[in-house]
Design brief:
The complex is a heterodimer of chains A (301) and B (612). Helices cover 82% and strands 0% of the residues of chain A. Chain A has 301 residues and is mainly α. Classes of the chains: A mainly alpha (301), B alpha+beta (612).
Chain lengths: 301, 612
């Protein structure tokens, strides 16, 4: 636990990295939302029917908007999907520098020159890792669903709140299975940062060797670090509803927007915090190119 | 004197006889009192062969000039791959094609007054037609049909699953004799449900002793025959007699006023009982008050394992798919109970024809589903209120309607629909919105009068769309009838909107307000609109649309701030409520808030997809 708190201190020192990564996500989302805003604002701004949205997530307005624009919804969804794919590709570029920082344990401030050169050098490897992970997720998702359905059958004929709890348990188990896969992805990326000269096969072997005995430990650490974010998220959702309810107007909307962005910022921080811990642990097992060079000391006379 | 007294006595006797005859004729021909024929069914279920066989017996209407008669063989919808019924349901058809276990009904023999007439019987798909050469009057004859029904494993209303049975349409059902003396024998194409004449049922059924019977009423007689039991049911007037059988059924029995409510459930479904009981009570009470009295002594709900998720309405018996594995965080299950219970009126007691005019069953029942839901849970969150996420049944109607496309003719046969989406979109959504529009424009008191009168006039009868329109005319006037006819027969697409709103100052004291009202769809129903001035005063007007659009010019001392057409959103079928109003000065706040919320959703998506 003390170690986790220490890594939180390191996270605070990496403020600029945290801020830039959050801003990158926020700007991408902003670009994706602008066409939506431009096409819907004209309809919403002139209508009295939309007034309820100022203080409440009134479904009747959202339904009216979307049912009237049924033909545009797929266009929006495709736009968001294309944007998300673009974001993921750019993230593979940034992962090169990010995992380099995490595994090398380089102290803040970040040397951006080195950061971006690592991004460029490792980009092809991170793309390969992503493709492998897509394959793994594609196998794990149906396999995980089959497993949780078997779990559901073992649970018997449940109705009402017990069925709801069982549904949450199923989702939780599925989430844990996918989370396990994401740790393997982190291990591959960390291995590629520590051993840039190794082949993809060697990197996979190093990552698997590191990942297998540590799966449960990583799961535990991730959950511990995820809890503060969940608390922030719940608090933000609660406060946002209160704020727009009390200040039904532009101030309420602005405060709600800031709360949402704070939550998004916290999520980025949570992941960097976890990566700082993970990177240090990986380095301790596989220092690779970051092992300090052995210095030959002169023999005493 | 004596002869005068005798004459007086004779006159009194004649008058008395005439009075008695008059009273008798009143009793016999009064519209409130019907005399229903008896439909006798004696059958037995073979659980090994999955067959039910027996005999149906009834008397043809006397002095009717009948030279032929017809009956229905509903199970033949499962008889082969060319079945129009199965072709409308690909899921069923694919199963039958895979398993090659077709089902259907065989007629062993058919007798008229005890004489075998099987050689004269013609069977075409689900239609049985008997014409006896040389016979010109079949009226009053006793019909006996010996049948054997092969029950499909994978069906909807007639099926078995492991040791549970759903038996509907399992016996040869007489066709309906029309007023003009012709037979109406429904064509069971896609999306069709059973249609039948009202009878008093006298059903004797022999079943394995371990099966519990969920039927419209409890058995009047039960005779143990070793490992089998013979049940006798007397039920009616009704146009169908269906059952659900299961060895695992437990019965929960309570009462709603004078009606006994029975729920047939399995032990693991026990926790959902209180919700079902409550929803049944709410809907039964609502319908009794707002439409008319529930006419049967029992109202039954059976939880069954369907091959689909939903409910199935049958007279005095409602089959509901099991709530097994349902978290029940929404009121969706209750909504299904409301819908199926509403069908007890609009299908069960008022026997509209689902095959020829499905909107009279589905659209009207769905309209009442929404009314019940609003009365129980309120306007805003009557379907879902979970983690501050609120959704109403009305929202769902409009969303599904918008996504499925609301255009099209609603008043047409069920079998004429090409796709399931068309059928559900037009019947359950657009149809319900048309009925809601009609009801709202009538206003509370006239609408109440309409539904009560509809019930009184057509109780245990078969109203047709024309009857519905006729009553609309009587209660709401010509405008109501024309609106209804247009929306159901031509197109349900309607959109009232305000296209522009402007203030132009004429001089220092007067302002010219101009607005353009527009209407899409060919309905010509007057719509209320109001103007809100900048000082908060409101001005009410009515637009009588002669054309598709009209510019209205009004002089005023105060500028207008907002205008709205149909401010109470009574025209529920209106395609778009957002364009019903206009503000002189736009307000970007709703758009900003929605975009901010969606942006947060996208950020969350990117976080999980991209790792940060």
């Amino acid at each position: 636990m003390r170690e986790l708190v220490e890594h939180f201190g390191r996270l605070l020192k990496h403020k600029s990295l945290w801020l830039f990564l959050y801003l990158f996500k926020a700007i991408m989302s902003l670009f994706l939302i602008i066409p939506f805003f431009l096409t819907t604002n004209g309809t919403l701004s002139s209508s009295l029917f939309s007034r309820g949205l100022i203080s409440d997530w009134d479904m009747s307005i959202i339904v009216e908007l979307f049912s009237g624009k049924a033909d545009i919804i797929p266009v929006y969804l495709i736009g968001i999907l294309v944007g998300a794919i673009l974001y993921i590709i750019i993230m593979q570029f940034l992962n090169g520098g990010l995992y380099y920082l995490m595994v090398s344990g380089e102290k803040a401030p970040v040397n951006w020159g080195i950061f971006f050169s690592e991004c460029g050098i490792n980009f092809p490897m991170h793309i390969k890792i992503s493709l492998l992970m897509v394959l793994i997720y594609m196998i794990l998702l149906p396999a995980g669903m089959f497993f949780v359905n078997v779990l559901g059958m073992m649970g018997g004929n449940l109705v009402g709140s017990s069925a709801f709890i069982m549904m949450l348990v199923k989702l939780g188990v599925l989430g844990l299975i996918l989370l396990g896969a994401s740790f393997f992805s982190d291990s591959l990326r960390a291995a590629s940062a520590a051993f840039p000269d190794k082949s993809f096969g060697d990197i996979t072997r190093i990552a698997a060797k590191y990942f297998r005995p540590r799966l449960l430990m990583l799961l535990g650490v991730f959950i511990v670090l995820f809890i503060p974010f969940v608390l922030i998220w719940v608090a933000v959702e609660f406060l946002a509803i209160q704020v727009v309810g009390l200040l039904a107007g532009i101030i309420g909307i602005a405060l709600e927007f800031l709360l949402f962005q704070f939550c998004s910022f916290a999520r980025t921080g949570q992941k960097i915090w976890y990566l700082l811990y993970f990177g240090r642990d990986f380095y301790n097992q596989n220092p690779g190119r970051f092992q300090p060079a052995q210095v030959e000391l002169p023999l005493g006379e | 004197m004596k002869s005068e007294l005798r004459e007086l006595d004779r006159l009194l006797t004649i008058s008395f006889r005439i009075a008695i005859l008059f009273l008798l004729s009143l009793a016999l021909f009064s519209p409130a009192i019907h005399a229903f024929d008896t439909l006798k069914v004696e059958a037995s279920l073979d659980t090994l062969k999955k067959e039910i066989s027996g005999v149906v017996e009834y008397r043809l209407p006397g002095n009717s000039g009948l030279h032929s008669f017809e009956f229905q063989l509903f199970p033949n919808v499962y008889s082969n791959q060319d079945s129009p019924y199965l072709r409308g349901n690909r899921q069923f058809l694919e199963h039958f094609l895979r398993d090659k276990k077709w089902a259907g009904m065989d007629i062993d023999s058919i007798c008229l007054d005890g004489i075998n007439q099987s050689s004269n019987l013609k069977i075409e798909y689900t239609k049985g037609i008997l014409e006896v050469p040389g016979e010109t009057e079949l009226g009053g004859r006793l019909v006996q049909i010996y049948f054997k029904t092969r029950i499909p494993e994978f069906g909807d209303r007639l099926s078995y699953f492991k040791n549970q049975y759903l038996l509907d349409g399992w016996y040869p059902n007489p066709a309906i004799l029309e007023r003009d003396g012709s037979w109406y024998n429904p064509y069971y194409g896609p999306y069709c449900e059973l249609v039948g004449e009202y009878y008093d049922f006298d059903v004797s059924l022999t079943l394995p002793a371990n099966l519990v019977v969920a039927a419209a009423i409890p058995a009047a007689d039960t005779i143990a025959l070793g490992e089998r039991v013979k049940y006798r049911f007397n039920f009616g007037p009704a146009h169908d007699f269906a059952m659900a059988l299961s060895p695992d059924y437990l019965i929960d029995s309570t009462s709603i006023g004078s009606t006994i409510l029975r729920i047939f459930y399995r032990d693991y479904e026990k926790s959902s009982l209180s919700a079902i009981r409550e929803a049944a009570r709410q809907s039964c009470e609502f319908m009794s008050v707002n439409v008319g009295k529930y006419q049967y002594s029992y109202l039954n709900y059976a939880l069954v394992d369907f091959t689909f998720s939903g409910g199935l309405e049958l007279p005095a018996l409602i089959d509901l798919s099991s709530p097994k594995d349902a978290p029940m965080i929404s009121h969706m299950y209750q909504s299904m109970i409301y819908h199926e219970t509403a069908h007890q009126w609009f299908y069960g007691m008022i026997g509209s024809n689902q095959v020829e005019a499905p909107w009279m069953d589905e659209a009207v029942s769905n309209f009442f589903t929404d009314k019940i839901q609003v009365s129980v849970y309120g306007e805003k969150a009557n379907l879902l209120d979970f983690a501050d996420f609120k959704m109403s049944n009305g929202n769902l109607f409009r969303l599904v309607g918008g996504l499925s496309g609301r255009d099209g003719i609603i008043n047409k046969p069920a079998y004429s629909f090409a796709t399931q989406m068309d059928y559900f979109g037009l019947m359950y959504v657009s149809g319900a919105l048309v009925v809601q529009t009609f009801d709202a424009l009538l206003g509370d008191s006239l609408a109440a009068e309409f539904w009560h009168k509809y019930y009184e006039r057509f109780l245990f009868k078969h109203p047709k769309p024309g009857d519905f329109f006729q009553l609309a005319d009587e209660i709401g006037g010509e405008n109501s009838r024309r609106l209804l006819e247009h929306l159901l027969n031509v197109t349900s697409r309607v959109d009232y909107s305000i296209e522009s709103l402007n203030n132009s100052r004429i001089d220092s004291t007067e302002i010219e307000i101009s607005l353009v009202l527009r209407k899409e769809g060919d309905i010509y129903y007057p719509a209320r609109y109001l103007l809100v001035k900048s000082n908060g005063d409101t001005m009410n007007y009515v637009w009588n649309p002669e054309y598709d659009s009209e510019e209205i010019v009004i002089k005023s001392m105060e500028p207008v701030a907002e205008a709205i057409i149909d401010p109470d959103y009574k025209i529920a079928i209106d395609n778009d409520f957002l364009n019903n109003s206009m503000k002189v000065r736009g307000d970007g706040r709703p758009g900003l808030r929605l975009s901010s919320g969606i942006m947060f959703l996208i950020e969350s998506l990117l976080s999980y997809g991209g790792g940060l």
